[in-house]
Amino acid sequence: MNSAAAGDIITVNDGIYNETVTLNSIGAGETLTIQAANSQQAFWNDAGVAITASGITGNFVISGFDLGTSSFTNVTGVVTLDDNLIDNVSGTNAVSANATGTNEMGLHLLDNDFVTVNGGFTGAINIDADTTAGGSFDFVADSNDFTGLGSNGIRVGDVSQVELTGGTLTARVTDNTFNGRTGFGTDIEFDIGGNNSNNYFASILIDGNLTNTGGAPSFVADALFINFDGVGTTILADISNNSFLHHDSGIFVDGESVQDGGVFNSRFDGNTISNTVREGLHIRPFSAPGGNTAVWNTVITGNTISNIDNDLSGGANGHNGIEIEADSTSSDDYTWNLDLIGNNVSMAAGSSGSPILVDANSTSNAIVNIERDIASNNTGSVTIDDPGSIVTMPSANAVTDSNELRTISGFVFN
Asked: Is 120 helix (H, G, I), strand (E, B) or coil?
């Protein structure tokens, strides 16, 4: 490894290799490939730390190993892990990556198997995209298989919540499968913006992921959680064609307590969500009073949401299929442009919840303008619960009437 040069392809024969390798720079735009001769038959420190890299330049491909844990910090270039098995990890991340300042870093995880991983709060895969103006993080997780997770699966965000000023995140989480969860955690989690962050930009695609296709796991947790925070944060999120089965909540999008202004454009299209203890899809904006007015543009279309609020052991719990909730704190300051079109929503037998609920849930002083188009072709009753402090404006097309809108269809990577 110490003599490896740009463009080399290192092929590793079957066997056990109990060593930690620290990658070295190979130069901007250059690529080094380390591959197993036979898929997952070369054991690269599979019970410990296999790979580390920090402050280096180049593109690196690691392919075909039974691999231990790996960590990457401020790599200027793209690290690709492809067709590896990472298993029996406890108390640490299977894969972690951190980019700070103006670093331009990428991590691509393709066709890997993560088996029996308990990474604690930060998950099996933990991405800290702490870049500032001029810096960026490109994250791809495609066609990976997660089995027996004991904690979060994929987590992207900033644990310290002190940076993320003017940086950029591009994330694609597509066609992954999650089965057999054994402990608390969220399968996919994004924490975007932080307590002291300003003008961070995130473009997120979450598409084609499957959860619990083999039936209910022994431990039920959330499928997808997105947390929106910071000052002037912009998020473009396309959540489409996922199948989220047997969860506590299906999808929960939450504005955090110090969010101030910003734009959240989101589309939820063609998802299947079923058998949840709580809400199927729950969206709760926030924007701190006395600051900048946030704008949320939301399209919810063509989703099938069924058997929601299905744990009635304590009586009818009253969770809802789709819940559109203004935050319970008074004095919020945001505009919400909302389209609900062609969704098919049904509740578990005996549930007291509503298939679709638009609920301001605020008592006084809120500055919340909800412009909404709730089409007649949604299946499932619609409940509107807006107190007098909320200004509601039914509209023929609420989202595209907003001059804050960037194009919803295809906005993420075009």
From this structure: helix
